[in-house]
Write a structure and sequence with these properties.
- With 333 residues, the chain is an all-alpha fold.
- The chain has 16 helices and no strands.
- Helix 1 (7-25) runs parallel beside helix 13 (266-276) and helix 8 runs parallel beside helix 12.
- The longest helix is centred in the first third of the chain and has 19 residues, at 7-25.
Length: 333
């Protein structure tokens, strides 16, 4: 019988799934299948329009901002939009990202609004893209199994740059998927149910934006992932019918669909997400983080872990240890 996963196993698994999915997916192509298959962690080709120049194991803004949120949590203990925005600014300044092509359109618009002096909530009032989703997985661990607290935390994380109902609904879906994956021994279907509950709760927040239902888009994507078809056809259907691009509602559903395709295995979720095409670093980061929480850190190849720590000059195990201690502190109260 397999040894039960500890909270640390799940926290570290989420961190590794986020960072490794991001770094692995950065080598994927934006067009759909067929394309050259990516089967192992590799540096993106120099000709890649966005990720060319990244080295083996180097992650993108998805994980840079996810860790900025984590830095804020470790400093203040609880999710705070003001603190998170300050942490975003610090990361942008420290890494020289203000003019980087890695920064997405909603985040860039919010940065410009901050510089004009706009109020924090108003700066993100037009943010509808997947930036709220790509960085939220770790937030889902803050209150394991507590969906109401998790949705509120997802709102705090999204609000500085993506303060629309669709972006917050999408972020809440992924955060609740992780929150459910961190408790007990859930099935993949349990995690999908939690994501849909989170999406419905999260849509009550933020500025109204014209967009589809996130929860229904998730259910549709899962139906496609479970269809009685060859794997490549299911990947094509997800790309063509759900979408794997910038809209938050697309990326949320696509990330969870790849969790289903991989039957919860984090490495397979990352590979499939990357090879379906689209915004592959984000799809793989989301699917990898949720699956990593579900299956734990031990599922990832050690050479990948060493590569991501080396390329980004980071110690993800130390992050996981400190975050686990914070979570456990409140669980004991």
């Amino acid at each position: 019988m397999a040894k039960p996963l500890t909270l640390y196993d799940r926290v570290y698994g989420c961190l590794l799934g986020q960072a490794l999915g991001d770094a692995f997916g950065a080598a994927g192509q934006m067009h759909c299948l067929p394309q050259p298959t990516v089967n192992d962690l590799m540096a993106p080709p120099a000709s890649h329009p966005i990720h060319g120049g990244l080295q083996l194991g180097e992650y993108t803004d998805d994980t840079i901002f996810a860790l900025a949120i984590l830095d804020s949590l470790l400093e203040g203990g609880k999710p705070s939009a003001t603190s998170i925005a300050r942490s975003f600014r610090s990361a942008i300044d420290r890494l020289g990202l203000a003019a980087s092509v890695l920064i997405g359109p909603s985040t860039r618009a919010a940065i410009d609004a901050w510089q004009r002096g706009d109020e924090l909530g108003k700066a993100g009032r037009s943010g509808w893209t997947n930036g709220s989703v790509m960085r939220v997985a770790l937030v889902g661990l803050r209150y394991p199994g507590d969906f109401d607290a998790t949705v509120e935390a997802a709102y705090e994380s999204a609000m500085p740059t993506h303060n629309t109902d669709v972006a917050i609904s999408s972020a809440a879906a992924i955060a609740c998927a992780v929150s459910r994956a961190a408790v007990g021994n859930p099935s993949v279907d349990d995690i999908i149910d939690a994501a849909c509950k989170g999406a419905e709760k999260g849509k009550r927040y933020g500025y109204a934006f014209i967009a589809p239902s996130v929860s229904r888009r998730i259910r549709f994507a899962v139906e496609l992932a479970k269809a009685d078809k060859p794997l490549l056809e299911r990947q094509r259907d997800i790309y063509d019918l759900v979408g794997t691009g910038l809209p938050a509602y697309e990326m949320t559903a696509a990330g969870l669909a790849h969790l289903v395709l991989a039957e919860g295995d984090p490495v397979e979720a990352i590979r499939l997400s990357t090879n379906t095409g689209g915004d592959t670093d984000t799809t793989a980061a989301i699917a990898g983080a949720v699956a990593g929480t579900l299956r734990g850190a031990g599922r990832f190849p050690m050479d990948w872990v060493e590569a991501v720590n080396r390329a980004n000059r980071v110690d993800l195990a130390d992050y996981a240890q400190r975050y686990t201690q914070l979570i456990q502190r409140d669980m004991r109260r």
